[in-house]
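Hello again, I could really use a second opinion on something today. Take your time with it, there's no hurry, and the full record follows here:

___
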Amino acid sequence: MNEVKQSIHALNQVIRGKDQEIRLAVCCLLARGHLLIEDLPGMGKTTLVHALAQVMGLDDQRVQFTSDLLPADITGVTVFDKNTSTFAFQAGPVFSQLLLADEINRASPRTQSALLEAMEERQVSVDGQAKPLPDPFFVVATQNPVYQEGTFPLPESQLDRFLMRLELGYPDPESERAILKGEAGRTELDTLSTVFSAQQLVKAQNEAAWVHVGDMLLDYVMRLISQTREAGYFNVGLSPRAGLALIGAAKAWAWMENRDYVIPEDVQAVFVAVSDHRLQAKEKGKSVRELLASTQVMG
C-alpha cells in the first residue's frame, strides 16, 4: 500500500495538478487494464506514460503510430537466417511489459486491429503460432482529438479493450508556472525512482482482485448499467464486459483506499473513466456524469 502512495506522489511531481487523473491511471494498471489517454498535443500524455513505466518498474517500448505503420511493425516478423538456413521470429515492441502506442489514431484501422488480440488474450498469433506476452502486460495509448487532421477514429471493438479513457486538460495556473520554470514535466523524469517491481505489481493486482463486492453493491452496478441501456441517453448501453471492467476498476480503487470491500464511492470514482468512451450520447448535453448523478445508490 505504501508503494501506491509513493507512486502517486512521484507521478504528481512530473504531472502537476492532475492528482485524480494520476490516481485513475494507477488504478487502471492495478486492475490489469489498458489505458487510453486522449487530449490535445503538448498536454503531457506521453510524459505521463513514461513516468508510469519508470515508477512501476516496467520494461517499456514506444511505437509512434503513423499512417504507414504496418501490423508487423508492432507484433514482429519471421525472417530467414542465412547462417542457420532456418526461419527465426524477431519479436516486435509489443513483447514488452508496457507498450506505449503513441497517437494510436494516426494509424490505419488495419494496424490498430493488430493490438486487439494482444490486449484481450495477452498473446499474438504469428504464422499460426500463439506467442504469449510478458506478465504484467499493458497497452497505454495516446490519441489526439478525432477532429484533428490525419486521424482515424478507433472502432468500438478497439475502444472496448481499454479499461479507462482519461483526459488531462490544461493545467491550473500554479502547475503551469511550475512547468514553465522547469520544475515539472519531462525535466523531472530523470529524477524518478522505481517504486514497484514487476513482481510487486502482480502481487498488488492479485490482492486487488480479491476485494469483496457485496450483493447490494452489485445491485447498484446493475442499476447503473441498466440506466445506460434504458434511459434513452445513449445509442447503445454498456455491455456485460463493460460491467466486469467497472467492477474490476472499483475493486482496485477500494484496494488503493486500503479497504478489502467495495463501497458505492469506489464505483462512482471510476465510473466516468470506465464508461465514457464506451457510450455515444444521442443528444448534446446528455452525459455519463448526469446519468451517474441521477441513479440512486439504494434501490
Summary: The chain has a mean pLDDT of 86. The longest helix spans residues 240-256. The domain at 210-299 is CATH 1.10.8.80 (Helicase, Ruva Protein; domain 3).
